[in-house]
Amino acid sequence: MRIERRFTKKNESPYAAIQFRKTNSEIRNPDGTIVFQLKDIEIPSHFSQVAGDVIAQKYFRKAGVPAVTKAVKEKDVPDFLWRRVPDEAAMADLPAGERSGSETKATQVFDRLAGTWAYWGWKGGYFDSAEDARSYFDEMRYMLAKQMAAPNSPQWFNTGLHWAYGIDGPSQGHHYVDYKTGKLTRSKTAYEHPQPHACFIQSVEDDLVNDNGIMDLWVREARLFKYGSGTGTNFSRLRGETEALSGGGRSSGLMSFLKIGDKAAGAIKSGGTTRRAAKMVVVDIDHPDVESFIDWKVIEEQKVAALVTGSKLHAHHLNAIMAACHEGRLDDGAVLTGDARFDPKRNKALKDEIRAARRVMIPENYVQRVIQFAQQGYTAIEFPTYDTDWDSDAYNTVSGQNANNTVRVTDDFLRAVEADADWNLINRTDGKVNKTVKAADLWEKVGHAAWASADPGIQFDTTINDWHTCPQSGRINASNPCSEYMFLDDTACNLASFNLMQFRSNDRSFDIEGFTHGVRLWTLTLEISVLMAQFPSVAIAERSYRYRTLGLGYANIGGLLMSCGLSYDSDEGRALCGAITALMTGVSYETSAEMAAELGAFPGYADNSQDMLRVMRNHRMAAHGWADGYQGLAVLPVPLDVPNCPDPRIAKAAAESWDRAVKAGEAHGYRNAQATVIAPTGTIGLVMDCDTTGIEPDFALVKFKKLAGGGYFKIINRTVPEALRNMGYDDQQIGEIERYAVGHGSLVNAPGINHETLREKGFGPEELAKLESTLANAFDIKFAFNKWALGEAFCTDILGLSATQLDSMSFDMLAALGFSRKAIEAANIYCCGAMTLEGAPHLKAEHLPVFDCANPCGKTGKRYLSTDSHIRMMAAAQPFISGAISKTINMPNGATVEDCKAAYKLSWTLGIKANALYRDGSKLSQPLASSLLDDEDLRDEMAEANKAEQIPLVAERIVERIIEKQVEHKRLPHRRKGYTQKAIVGGHKVYLRTGEYEDGTLGELFIDMHKEGAAFRSLMNNFAIAVSIGLQYGVPLEEFVEAYTFTRFEPSGMVEGNEAIKMATSVLDYLFREVAISYLGRDDLAHVQPEDMMPDTTGGGDKEANLPEVNAHALEALNRITSRGFVRKADLTAYTSVMSQMGRGLPANAAQAGTVQIVETGTVQTAVKVDGNVRVAVEDRLDKIREARAKGYEGDPCGDCGNMTLVRNGTCMKCVTCGATSGCS
Is there a contact between 398 and 303 (Cβ–Cβ < 8 Å)? Predict the structure, then answer.
């Protein structure tokens, strides 16, 4: 191939026009401890500190880089491509500690990557001359240094270590196909043939220990995770739980093996510095165990909730019991001594704490153990507590946390849903029907699971295989972890992405020629990577050689659209995205056909040529914007919207590129079965300083730029001023809009709170100077008003604040000084910025959509992109992508299950191949965006709301908080009625005890089980507590019944001992059927009707006479002393006749004589005292979460560095501090 120079000059270094700078790279935990540090690194001057940190921490080789190298001469290889090895003789003269070390210059990394590609490209015959190879080498290094494009992470980790430094190691069991002979070869070393592929799809057979069996898959996955790659597998070949084994008995089922694989993946960390394992689990919609698979993560989330709640209750109550043992007093206040302190009969405080512990089901043996500890002299007990952080021990304890789950649905299934038809679940062993369900019910389950836990995602099997270029070689069954790579089982894909913001001309128009040149070179690079690579299994090595799939994509489309003044949710924005995508893939396939003309088509092309050409023609038709004429597609794509494309040049170039690609393919075939995908571009997006990743919109308008010496400063998104300028705003207006978003960093001349008003409160010049130095980088002005910034003496002596106030984390100094909430808010926006453009001066309302992000911006922002806007942007790009698109569909917290199902259906009808939903707050680890509202917001709203409205307000706002406000907690009487019901569900004893209010309504549940083990028993105990709290705060019992009846898990089956219920699909199904029948009159949930259980039943009794008039006093008495649940009556009117007759039969003075006594039980309001340290810790964590969410982050700590800087990244998460990602690119 001929390689022209576009960015570099002959006989000149590719770095000649690029400035470099020295800096230190340091990543710290939130507590200040150093995660990573490397001093005096050299990076391009235009790299941000984050980009420098990521390349230094993630991509620099940290050990074994020789201080001096020498060339290894190779015949027929140009000298500038000779590989290098350590110069042992020269290094012998150096001190032992200086002979090898870490890479310290970015150019070292660029050189080893581009040099290795050029070396193998030369050996593979991809260049016409040595000058073409040198041009390629220089152009690639320039693009890497200028952040124009980047390969996936495994390339940075592994490529070039052997070529540049002679680094190697023992083989890890990899294989490759020799490019000269075409023969499968076992790798002799670890790095001579690098592993550059990020994405793998692997198969698994219904076999336990043989090759390609279940246990073999875990080994193959480990090889991938070790080198920083991700893998996906369709597990639908594994037999279901009810299917028979060949040797007798039944299979342990799909789910048991998925849990083993999940734990194995979680134990592997690739290299210790890259990321945790990335994995995709796919199951077909007709698998016998698909229902359990759909509910998997929903149930695991519930377990986490129980662990978190239970551990905190244990810690609180056990320490309270310990304290009561040492602080016991008699009723008269006298201090207890000796053994009396440990006797609950004598120590009233201990007795009260034991009762409190029993009420929340703390096990009796734990209570006794704590008392025994106290007797031995211990004064405190350390009981581990769990939190809901996504990388916490609570999540590590449960299963399903190391993979993305996906259900694969066919068009037949989706049509069955529309027709409300039956759907068969098919045995894997004999192909017979295992079970028949309603398709709509199964679809409802999918929607609910996605709503509740953000899993599973959906892959549209029919659409995927309609666009399959090699159907004669097999079906597409699965994808990689992020869902962008979809091809045959046992294949691999290496990715690279362009930074679209770097392909703009001086006039800010899109550089079509430069982009086309880049696409050609990077298609060549990915093809060379297939030639040089080694693979973790024989099958993947053979199939990767045979089909040669590539994954070229882009990042920063969101930033490009904003800079052009186009809304992400606009016809023009979608048209521009579609045109750029069509141009990229058209040129890539054109290049693939060019390589096929010289080197031959991929070996599998002959078997699939007609199918592939059909797919290419469909791509071409979409690129021309044609609406019909497509071949072999069940769902038509969304064609390029040519009339709305804001740059007609791009649409024209895209259509022409597809014309050439199809024509060249018809003549020569293609070198690659697939060419493009749109990946999440997580870590590499940070290296390229992309504002947005993949096809995602922006997540925030104000970013926190990291400083080399530590700390951050706020900057407006670089695309915002450019967009404003394109829309006609002048520099002065743009400056004022920026200052509104970012803030002035000062209280000088601020509204409400400024230097003048502070002087009136006692602030002097010294204190004001301290404030100003702190405010420059403050996220909120309240963080500057504390004893550390102002000095404790000033706060107590001049401002008159107490030490107790100053020590409280929840203390608001400004409010205490008399400033109103409105004054604080106005000053806060002036000083620290609104972090949104909503309400900005000069900005026209019609321009606001341009700046809409995935989530509301700042603390006051309300606008965000709709669910449909994400889906329609994917639909605009999908017709021009070989593979698929990794994208999270953001949904607000208020979205319903129906909204989730509608989003999936819209994706299907628009021809999207896969979809993953994320509803705000659908995971415990993800705090609600609404939690950004502070206590004052809640207090004001509650003051305006009536009593019935207050409970929803609290439930909506509070995620995790120790409540100190009065919120209509309806407390139960100390002596209360209820009933105990014993039953056996599926062979397991279940005891249900209820507690009722005086009016007979249900107020609490106690659940106890036998034979299920301590863990499950404790889970049920804590679940009962959670339900009880909900009931006492006004959650209707009907809501619990609707949520938990018909849930399906073990134990389940026949019910013994309950006269109304004879069968249950789970313990929860049984329990909520029971309370629904007993307290709500829901006889429709009973298997035996109440009239059939009466001893004198004679018939229907449809026309019974009216009951006698009810005695009001008798009814009130019955309400107080009779358990409605026990008699299974929501209305006790029918029983008052008995009471009335009893009353009439008594002497007139019987009431005074005490024959009938009705006691009214009062209610005592008691306050729960929470330990101060606990309260401070919780409030501090909530403040950090709120701050993170306001900055546009997810509100979770990074699993690597601990900073709360995680953002959504395709279907994964990435940390913008250290670059860690849960994905595979």
Answer: yes
Q: Which residue has the tokens 């993800």?
A: 926
Torsion sign across C-alpha atoms 468, 473, 477, 481:
negative
Comparing 1047 with 697, which gets the higher pLDDT? 697
Cβ(11)–Cβ(135) below 8 Å: no
Instruction: Identify which of 198, 121, 156, 62 has the alpha carbon closest to the alpha carbon of residue 688.
Output: 156
Cβ count within 10 A of residue 627: 11
Q: pLDDT tens-digit profile of 73-123?
A: 999 999 999 999 999 999 999 999 899 999 999 999 999 999 999 999 999
Determine the residue type at 891: M
What φ, ψ does residue 143 adopt, rounded to 5°?
-65, -35
Poorest-pLDDT segment among 42-51, 205-214, 1014-1023? 1014-1023
Cα–Cα nearest to 147, from 681, 525, 564, 516: 681
Q: What confidence tier does 1135 reach under pLDDT thresholds 50, 70, 90?
A: very low
Enter the tokens of residue 627: 């609406």
In sequence order, the β-bridge partners of residue 437 are: 423
Give the residue numbers annotated as catalytic, written as ranges: 480, 482, 484
Closest CA to 865 of 853, 850, 873: 853
Residues paired with 1054 in a beta bridge: 1063
pLDDT in tens, 1142-1172: 333 333 333 333 333 333 333 333 333 344 4
Lowest mean pLDDT among 37-41, 74-78, 388-392, 1051-1055: 388-392
Q: Which one-letter amino acid corresponds to residue 583? A: L
Residues in the chain, how many? 1225
Nearest Cα residue to 989 out of 967, 965, 1011, 968: 1011
DSSP 1108: P
- How many angstroms separate the Cα of 298 from the Cα of each of 291, 341, 448, 1047? 12, 45, 9, 11
Confidence at residue 852, expressed as pLDDT on a 0 to 100 scale: 94
Quick check: 601 and 670 in contact, CB under 8 A? Answer: yes
Residue with tokens 């913001």: 501
Buried b (16+ CB within 10 A) or exposed e, 1070-1099: bbbbbbbbbbbebeebbeeebeeeeeeeee
Q: Which of 1046, 1049, 1052 is nearest to 1085 (CA)?
A: 1046
How far CA 203 is from CA of 474, 537, 746, in Å, comes to: 12, 11, 60
Q: Which helix (H) or strand (E) holds 353?
A: helix 348-359
CB 595 within 8 A of CB 587: no
Cis peptide before 78 (omega within 30 of 0): no
Count CB atoms within 10 A of the CB of residue 846: 8
Instruction: State how far the alpha carbon of 598 is from the alpha carbons of 592, 668, 670, 780, 1199, in Å.
Output: 10, 9, 11, 62, 48
Distance, CA of 705 to CA of 690 (rounded, Å): 13
Q: What is the mean pLDDT of residues 260-280?
A: 67
Percent of the chain that is helix, strand, coil (3-state, to 5) = 45, 15, 40
> For residues 281 and 258, is the Cβ–Cβ distance under 8 A?
yes
Share of the chain above pLDDT 90, in %: 52
Please write down the long-range contacts of 1160-1167, taking CB distance under 8 Å and 24 or more positions apart: 1160/998, 1160/1120, 1161/973, 1161/974, 1161/975, 1161/976, 1161/998, 1161/1120, 1162/973, 1163/971, 1163/972, 1163/973, 1164/971, 1164/974, 1165/971, 1166/971
C-alpha separations of 517 from 690, 796, 981 in Å: 20, 68, 76
With a pLDDT cut of 70, the percent of the chain lying above it is 84
Alpha helices by DSSP H, listed for 227-274, are 254-266
Bond from prior residue into 1051 cis (ω within 30 degrees of 0): yes
Of 782, 785, 740, 781, give the one whose Cα is nearest residue 767: 785
